[in-house]
Amino acid sequence: MASTHNELASILRRIDHRGYKAYQDIRGQYRFPGFDLYVDHVQADPFAPPSRFRVRIPQSVAGFPAWSLATPTRRVALSDFLTRRFSALAAALSRGRGQGQGQGQGQGQGRDRAQGWEQGRGQAAAAGTGKSGRISMARPGQEILARNSVLVDANGVEARFTVGLPAAGRTILGGVAEDLICGAVPKLVREALVFASLSATEAASLERHIRAAEDADALRAALPGLGIVAFVANGAILPRRSGVDERPLDRGNVVPFVSPPSLEVEVTLPNRGAVRGMGIPRGVTLIVGGGYHGKSTLLRAIERGVYNHIPGDGRELVVTSPFAVKIRAEDGRAVTEDDISFFITNLPFGADTRRFSTENASGSTSQAANIVEAIEAGAKVLLVDEDTSATNFMIRDRRMQALVAKDREPITPFIDRVRSLADDGISTVLVLGGSGDYLDVADTVIMMDEYRPVDVTARAREVAARFPTGRRFEGGNERLRVARRVPVSLGFARVGDRRSTKTKARGTDAIVLGHEEIDLRNVEQVADPGQTRFIADALRYLEARLLDGKATIPELIERLEREVEAHGMDVVAPYVHGDYCLARPIEIAAALNRLRTIEVRAAR
Q1: Strand, coil or helix: what is 151?
Q2: Helical H runs in 96-134?
Q3: Residue 176 pLDDT > 70, yes or no?
Q4: What's the domain count of the chain?
Q5: In the 8-state DSSP scheme, what is residue 583?
């Protein structure tokens, strides 16, 4: 049975100046005016990961309008907005001026209110040992993602956050803790999670946030009917501030995107109405141009277009098929039982490329594996940049064909396979700066000229006819075969025990599962550390609950999707927390395929 907030205050006064372990007494549920507080986990000492708290607010108190809860898209956007607002206010309350905004990626949600709190933080943010006094929630980036930091439905709002319980050394500061938990937290809950607390400007920001997500989802759903795999709106701002700052470039020569007339498409969206922009058709599309003219910037925007973006990002209406995957070479990765024979055959010493395994893939074998694994996981669009590809995988020119006979070359280059893939419904968007041979296989050629796209398809065909390469086609009539692989073991967990293997996420770069590390640096569409955390626990859940030695990798991922759809992301969690963002099945499969301990067999 829940205790009252007054009883919580009494406990904190009782344990004042006792040893830190006495904080364990506050675990439990407490009834506050307008919400319930749950202390789910109490940290072991001031330097340990902070304590995990939750609040639940009934919708009769939270008061978010019915329209904001009416669809899954709106609920995801509302949750994302409230996460940004709570995170900004909590950071300002806990850490002082300038710390609540991070890189400013929360846009305006809670920013003005947070700045107003900085002068009056008082005892709640008093200095202490370790993480004393800090209230925090996951800080989002530029993408609107499904999160479990704030859960919203018609019944209410649940927010999950952490609190650094105050101490001097390892001595409890009970008075500071009372001020923090019984004073600052209720204030934070009221300001961040109750609709009536929003000013008119903040309520308008919430509506823009939801409408932006709704329009992006509607646009993405319209792509197949338009015969395109991506859309880049006129007026979009594609360049980012830096390689580590995803906010839009806002100084210097910022060039708004304008579609070439021949590729312009108009779409009517539920909120913005008619919008125009460049549609990238199905098939083989080349993005060409001189160095520093915006080729990779355009591809990067298309790559991130699988996600919705916050208002003000500049890419709100840059939208890509949800089945698009960035492909690159990845020297050194492990490959397990992939059929890469569509690209590579007749390796020295008789290595079987229909069941190819290696602990240390080359550039070409890794790129081949990345393609067949992505297609196995459901990819329909391949996004490729020449700069991050293996040269010998991409092209064999006429001179090299003359020097090295085909029967001595195991690789059938991508140029001789890309049309076959397109015929099978797998489109490719390829950034090129030096391989003009690809003009022979392209359906569409877009040239970036000072960040302005120009449709040069007709000119490219003229150039290809005028300057024939003389190279021989090496593709033959083979079609891509995707191996049906059945995982027998992932190699890190005891069946039936989700807690048996510790997991850790290192930003968006890596996952640690027990003693095993999965390198995700080259899985470039993982956008948020919360996705990495979700993938880590999803793999553990697959091993413990779903693996049966019969289901193929796509079937396992589909089972996981159904579990998450039915029970939420918490289904894979070993304990209640708010650190997840939903990852695409394609990225979950990518992590699974990079697990060096996985054991698979061919499906019967």
Answers
A1: strand
A2: 111-117
A3: yes
A4: 3
A5: P
